[in-house]
TrEMBL record:
A matching Pfam family: Plug
UniProt-listed InterPro entries: Plug_dom (IPR012910)
Bias (Basic and acidic residues) ranges: 39-54
Protein name: TonB-dependent receptor plug
Keyword field contains Chaperone: no
SUPFAM superfamilies membership: Porins (SSF56935)
Swiss-Prot/TrEMBL keywords: Receptor
Domain TonB-dependent receptor plug: 113-198
Region listing for Disordered, in residue ranges: 18-54
Length: 732
């Protein structure tokens, strides 16, 4: 049949006559065959010969349609390789991003993108925050331990936002302070730290993709203390604008040595779907965090300080957006978020009246246990929008929360102008809502008093003398705050800048009952107002910036770090709860040096020294210095397929005071009001990274000098930890 068709076509071509003299065939009549590279990037047209005005008109029999029945090859049935549609990579409209404010500063800003976050060696958000002057990290052990960040000695002054939603603290034992160890970096696309004078705001953007070619990332790490970490990410955009991505991170550490923090596991999972076309986008995100932590023992006497912990947190978010906060023109976003955290049965406290390795006769121990599956939840609705034109940014946000059946509103406005000569930023917020504040007496629990006595052979016999079922009460209202922040930078010369920042805020803190009261308490609110000032001058030498200045913090009430429960007084032999502190006004000196020193050698140094010693939850002197080499060695590898980093990081902090509640004597009077301090600590970390194309070999040695140290009194940090692995990305 194919041969007959071919003969008919040849015969018709020989007999048919043109209607007018046949001109030469123009050069554009027959399309040039596509180059091999083009065939992979764009689909070939069905026919390479098109009839145009100057084309030769050929009469064909009605039964033979050469344009429909014959392909580029005249013999039908032979596959047409040029006609096959080859999928090509394309970039789709971006899924909406949350607003990231201008950070008024000089030199390298505290902002990291997807790859640079992990290049720093950070495992979670805690490791990044340690780089910021004024931030003090508290840990009970290695990466699975409880981790709290305090800014200028106050943990409530560190707030974290992810995709425009504030990540509130829901753990009732934390006293309204978020455990930053919960916030993993595996699924984060960008981290920006906004340093106001009186508050530190961390803005996170969830990882998203724009290419239709699938993107895959796989990381695997292992190390000492039975540490294993795995990450996986997959994302892809489709030609219709649809977005689908999933990311999982799982790590765990062993529990064989509970004297240096114990073990635990963390599972962080992300699922995200969305659609974007032009300036419009819709996306839904689910973040799930499963976290468990073994009991933590005091190093000296092996007594349990932090009980076991097991929780599951779900954050579900839906967003509808128009425009891009990073682009020009108007933008608008509406966000609905639901957060819930479920706590499994776990001990709250273990109050011992003695800490001898072998308890004497008739030792009374009080143990509180949470009821199974205590769940705490909160909803958050955000409406935000703004306009950007050149260096001018304007935005407004209305944040509505449901807390214990009550609606709390927190409006905020922001305006900024940025140029080389002058930059200014103004932020105002009314009624900001803190984390969940629930006293231990208000959590549904079972209270037991156990009498331990020593019997023959040195064993211990325990007898429950009293069991009390304490019902759960209504959670205390969260702390509220209203503030105004103003920051400005003046750069009269390209190598000299002056910076100034001021914050004025007023806070309402709920009253906190003692840990061992066993009864619910009413809120005893106290209003405090404080003004914080920061002035700095910066000088550029080559590519490096040198800075120095002063920080003035007003008197304020500092909420307790209740994450760490109770501490031991070595002198008194008694255990008492960590307490709030009324701090007096304090003045500190800041200093820093950041940037390249010579070729690819860089330095990152920052510190803060207070003129007054003994401030609650803050060291008098804190210094972090990093010296390293970061290069792509383009002279030897001009393709950019090689990268190298080696860094030595030294961190020093003087002793830190933890205030505690007074202990009454047998007559009811106050017996003592001593303090507990974490001694001075100095830790050296070494980091090495080698990148070959899209694979990175990474190695860290933490506490390289094996120095014993504590950052929370009585909780010894681990010795040297080797942590190494590979990060690998694929475009497939």
């Amino acid at each position: 049949m194919a041969g007959a068709v071919l003969q008919v076509i040849i015969a018709v071509g020989l007999v048919a006559q043109p209607t007018r003299p046949q001109p030469p065939v123009p050069a554009d009549t027959v399309r040039r065959p596509q180059q091999p590279g083009d065939t992979l990037r764009r689909p070939a047209r069905p026919d390479t010969v098109r009839t145009k005005r100057d084309s030769v008109t050929v009469a064909a029999p009605a039964a033979v349609d050469t344009t429909r029945r014959a392909g580029i090859d005249s013999v039908r049935g032979v596959p047409d390789t040029l006609k096959t549609r080859v999928r090509r990579d394309s970039i789709q409209a971006p899924i909406a991003r949350a607003e990231v404010p201008n950070d008024i500063g000089v030199g390298p800003l505290y902002r990291w993108t997807r790859d640079s976050v992990l290049t720093t060696g950070a495992i979670n958000l805690s490791d990044l925050l340690e780089r910021v002057p004024g931030v003090t990290m508290f840990r009970s052990g290695w990466i699975a331990s409880a981790q709290t960040a305090a800014y200028l000695g106050d943990a409530t002054r560190v707030r974290v936002f992810r995709d425009g939603v504030e990540l509130d603290a829901l753990d009732p034992r934390a006293g309204g302070v978020r455990d930053v160890g919960d916030i993993q970096l595996a699924n984060i696309d960008e981290v920006t730290i906004e340093r106001a004078a009186g508050e530190l705001r961390v803005h996170l953007r969830t990882w998203t993709v724009r290419n239709t070619t699938p993107y895959t990332r796989v990381d695997a790490f292992t190390g000492d203390e039975d540490t294993n970490l795995y990450r996986f990410f997959y994302g892809r955009r489709f030609g219709s604008g649809f977005d689908a991505q999933v990311g999982v991170q799982q790590f765990g550490t062993g529990s064989r040595n509970r004297r240096v923090g114990g073990g635990g596991t963390v599972l962080d999972a992300l699922a995200r779907v969305g659609w974007a076309r032009g300036l419009w986008s819709v996306d839904a995100t689910l973040n799930r965090l499963d976290r468990s932590r073994d009991p933590t023992l005091r190093f000296e006497d092996q007594q349990e300080v932090l009980p076991n912990f097991e929780s599951r947190r779900n954050d579900t978010q839906l967003r509808i957006a128009y425009g891009d906060p990073d682009g020009r023109g108007p933008w608008l976003q509406a966000i609905a978020n639901a957060a819930s955290q479920r706590l499994a049965t776990t001990a709250l406290l273990s109050l011992d009246t003695t800490f001898a390795p072998t308890p004497p006769v008739n030792v009374v121990v009080s143990v509180d246990t949470l009821r199974a599956d205590s769940t705490f939840s909160r909803r958050q609705y955000v409406l935000t929008g703004g306009y950007r034109l050149g260096g001018v940014r304007l935005s407004a946000t209305d944040r509505l929360r449901t807390v214990a059946g009550e609606m709390l509103n927190s409006p905020a406005v922001r305006a900024s102008y940025d140029s080389r000569l002058f930059s200014v930023s103004v932020f105002g917020e009314k009624g900001a809502v803190g984390g969940l504040v629930v006293d231990s007496a208000l959590v549904p629990r079972v209270h037991r008093r156990i009498q331990q006595r020593r019997v023959e052979g040195g064993t211990v016999d325990s007898v429950i003398t009293k069991t009390t079922d304490v019902p759960g009460g209504v959670a205390l209202p969260p702390w509220r705050a209203s503030r105004v922040d103003v920051s400005a930078r003046l750069s009269p010369l390209p190598w000299f800048s002056l910076l100034g920042s001021a914050s004025r805020e007023s806070r309402t803190l709920p009253g906190l009952a003692p840990h061992d009261t066993g009864t619910a308490v009413d809120t005893v609110a106290s209003s405090k107002g404080a003004t914080t000032l920061r002035l700095e001058a910066a000088l550029r030498l080559g590519r490096m910036w040198l800075s120095g200045g002063v920080v003035r913090r007003g008197a304020d009430t500092v909420p307790p770090l209740r994450t760490y429960g109770c501490l031991t007084l070595p002198a008194g032999g008694c255990e008492r709860a960590i307490a709030a502190a009324d701090s007096t006004a304090a003045t500190g000196v800041t200093f820093g040096a950041r940037g390249p020193v010579w070729k690819d050698v860089y330095v990152d140094l920052g510190g803060l020294a207070w003129s007054q010693a003994g401030g609650a939850y803050r060291p008098q002197l804190q210094l972090r210095s990093e010296v390293g080499v970061l290069t792509n060695w383009l002279g030897r590898f001009p393709s950019g397929n090689f990268g190298f980093k080696f860094a030595a990081i030294d961190e020093y902090r003087s002793r830190v005071r933890f205030p505690i509640t007074p202990a009454p004597n047998t007559e009811g009077a106050l017996l003592c009001d001593l303090e507990v301090c974490a001694p001075a600590a100095n830790v050296l970390t070494l980091q090495l990274e080698i990148r070959i194309q899209s694979g990175v070999l990474s190695y860290q040695l933490r506490n390289a000098l094996n120095r014993p140290y504590e950052v929370v009194p009585g909780l010894r940090m681990p010795g040297p930890i080797n942590y190494y692995g590979v990060r690998w990305t694929f475009w497939n």
